[in-house]
Design goal:
Blueprint (H helix, E strand, L loop, with lengths): L1 H35 L10 E5 L8 H6 L4 E8 L3 E2 L3 H10 L3 E7 L6 H11 L10 E4 L12 H19 L4 E4 L1 H7 L9 E4 L14 E8 L8 E6 L2
Parallel strand pairs: 1-2, 2-4, 4-5, 5-6, 6-7, 7-8
Antiparallel strand pairs: 1-9, 2-3, 8-9
Helix pairs in contact: 4-5
């Protein structure tokens, strides 16, 4: 009787260990799949990346071979932030045959005029560039002085108008979910949207998007660091 109980305990232990191994294998596969997944090109034929200095050295020709047709490049932030890799990345992306555009990160603590001046300093006015992008991520919560929601919207309106005057093209608004939750501005500006949600289509803006950061952790031979993989909706 004791022997049968011991055998029973042995089988239970083996089954438990097997379940642990299977769970670990499943988690490892999901982790690998997440880092290498991109949306089906049959559904989204226009795919690309967003690149900044934090991504390190980029092989844009490899990105082209992986299916990227465009690259949005972080250019400026607020009144003084400038991406030191922007000029090099712009030249390399073009040399690789990728369409390229510039991204400005909006700072709600800073007046629009200073932000526009920063963007204009970094970004040439060229017809070959993609429409400019204003990235809305930071809220006014940590500003040195209180900034009202009305002021955030007003300065953003000014920034949009000034950047569009410089580039001659309508801006795209890249809206993070936390920013939209705070201000709900996506419905107030008649501009194309760029939303972010890894693996799952984003719906937090309440209206259709043009660009979608579908994988914020994409690993590839084109860079040592994870990249932000983006698709366009036709």
């Amino acid at each position: 009787m004791a022997r049968r109980k011991a055998q029973g305990r042995g089988w239970k232990l083996r089954i438990a260990l097997l379940l642990v191994v299977l769970a670990a294998a499943s988690a490892a596969w999901l982790w690998w799949d997440l880092r290498h997944w991109t949306p089906d090109p049959a559904a989204y034929p226009d795919q690309g990346v967003e690149i900044g200095s934090e991504d390190g050295a980029i092989n844009f020709r490899t990105l082209r071979a992986l299916g990227a047709g465009f690259a949005y490049l972080d250019a400026s932030s607020g009144a003084a932030g400038q991406d030191p890799s922007f000029v090099r990345n712009l030249a390399d992306a073009r040399d690789a045959g990728l369409m390229a555009g510039a991204v400005h990160r909006y700072d709600p603590c800073v007046m629009a005029d200073a932000q526009t001046a920063n963007f204009v300093t970094m970004t040439p006015r060229e017809d070959t560039l993609l429409p400019p992008v204003i990235h809305l991520a930071e809220t006014a919560e940590n500003c040195p002085e209180r900034v009202s929601e009305a002021a955030v919207e007003s300065e953003l309106t000014t920034l949009i108008n000034q950047i569009e005057t410089h580039t001659g093209k309508p801006v795209l608004l890249k809206v993070d979910e936390a920013f939209e939750d705070e201000y709900g501005l996506a419905a107030r500006f008649e501009r194309n949207l760029w939303l972010t949600r890894t693996r799952l289509q984003p719906e937090y803006a309440g209206r259709p998007w043009l660009l979608w950061t579908a994988n914020e952790y994409f690993r590839s031979p084109a860079a040592d660091a994870p990249l932000r993989w983006v698709v366009a909706q036709n």
